[in-house]
Specification:
About 25% of the residues are buried. This protein has seven helices and no strands. It has one domain (about 1-170). The chain starts with a helix and ends with a helix. By secondary structure, it is mostly helical.
């Protein structure tokens, strides 16, 4: 719900000031959400999950409109449809890849078969398996944090690259 309110605002910021700030801020906020997720334990209150989910939703709502705006600005109007289709294709591939990576990383702490039935939702875990699986999830969140932090750093450098590519005339322009 919060993310659905933030998305249009982040889109306006991206349209007015460029995509670098909302994209970088959104990715950075998602890193914070992943950090909160990585600290969850078996006894953590549900409110912590809600906080992490809200942070993640706000971060995603900041990133996605800005990323889409950056892509659409980079292509000619004649290929908007192709660019939009490729963006959605790669977003879907990335989502599936992230799920498979999470399963792979988390399953290092328990058997692969048990990890798959847990992710599918057909098994319950208790005791030492729950603790081991939670540790595996923490590792998956740390791995995701690394990738997300790298993406945020790359996003932040776009402003500096754009100014250096444009030269002094762009820096003097209003």
């Amino acid at each position: 719900m919060v993310g659905s309110a933030v998305g249009p605002l982040a889109g306006r910021v991206a349209d007015r000031f460029g995509p670098v700030l909302p994209a970088t801020a959104g990715l950075s906020l998602q890193v914070v959400a992943l950090l909160v997720y990585s600290r969850l334990s078996i006894g953590t209150g549900l409110w912590v999950v809600v906080v992490a989910s809200v942070l993640n939703g706000i971060g995603a709502s900041g990133f996605f409109p800005a990323n889409t705006a950056a892509l659409m600005r980079a292509v000619k109007p004649q290929v908007f449809g192709v660019a939009s289709g490729m963006l959605r294709t790669f977003a879907n591939i990335g989502m599936v890849f992230s799920f498979s990576m999470a399963i792979l990383v988390a399953s290092r702490s328990i058997s692969r078969g048990l990890a798959f039935v847990i992710f599918v939702g057909t098994a319950k875990i208790k005791g030492h398996l729950a603790v081991a699986f939670t540790a595996g999830l923490h590792t998956a969140f740390y791995t995701s944090m690394g990738g997300m932090a790298l993406a945020a750093a790359c996003s932040a450098t776009r402003a500096a690259r754009r100014q250096s590519d444009a030269g002094p005339a762009a820096a003097a322009a209003p």
